Amino acid sequence: MQARYRLLGGYALLALLLDQLTKFWVLAAIPKHKSITVIPGLLDLVNIRNRGAAFGFLNRSDIEWQFWLFLLATLVAAVAIILLVRTAQEQPWLFRALGLVMGGALGNLIDRIRFRAVVDFLDIYVGDWHWPAFNVADMAICVGAGLACLLLWKSPQPGSKKEARP
Q1: Are 78 and 102 in contact (CB under 8 A)?
Q2: pLDDT tens across 57-74, in order?
Q3: Is the pLDDT score of 158 beyond 90?
Q4: φ, ψ for residue 57 (rounded to 5)?
Q5: What pLDDT, on the 0 to 100 scale, is given for residue 56?
Q6: Phi/psi of residue 19, each to 5°?
Q7: Is 120 within a domain?
Q8: What pLDDT sits at residue 140?
Q9: Is-contact 19 104, C-beta < 8 A?
Q10: Strand positions, DSSP E, 22-161
Q11: Would 159 be classed as within a structural domain?
């Protein structure tokens, strides 16, 4: 197996395992809709469900179709990642970044299949201002996507002047 697929799979597996292990702990240790203060005025651990996407988009209990939308979106993203890895130049950090995205997406997909919602547990706030609760899968997706964008933006394009070296 090529190194690019080992990196993609290894980082996807790492993100997926960390995500599922932390969610397993939250489900066992924190009652649903309860919180534990970790850093007063900044961070609580909570046990909530999000049927929607980022920032609570489509987080509604009166509709069912969002499950199918997010299932399809995850499958399309996984296929797109595999195609990108397959056709990309040799960029190990890009493969790692895309592995994080894939692992995070699969971690949230497992939740959607099990619970019809994603388990979120990190609640960051200052005063009355709260960032929407999130989880390890969300962090993997954001870090991986941000790194992938940076790498794709900074990488020289075929035939560009940056690529040519004396």
Answers
A1: yes
A2: 666 566 677 788 888 989
A3: no
A4: -55, 125
A5: 62
A6: -65, -50
A7: yes
A8: 98
A9: yes
A10: 35-39, 43-50, 118-126, 129-130
A11: no
Per-residue tokens: 133: 């609760």
Q: How many domains does the chain have?
A: 1
The string of pLDDT tens digits covering residues 9-56 is 999 999 999 999 999 999 999 999 999 999 999 999 999 998 776 656
Residue 26 lies in a domain: yes
Q: Which domain holds residue 135?
A: 3-154
Asked if residue 161 is part of any domain, the answer here is: no
Among the residue ranges 23-27, 82-86, 87-91, the one predicted with the least confidence is 87-91
Helix (H) or strand (E) holding 122: strand 118-126
| Residues designated as active site | 120, 138
CA atoms of 110 and 129, how far apart (whole Å): 30
* Size of the chain, expressed as the number of residues it contains: 166
Cα 108 from Cα 113, distance rounded (Å): 9
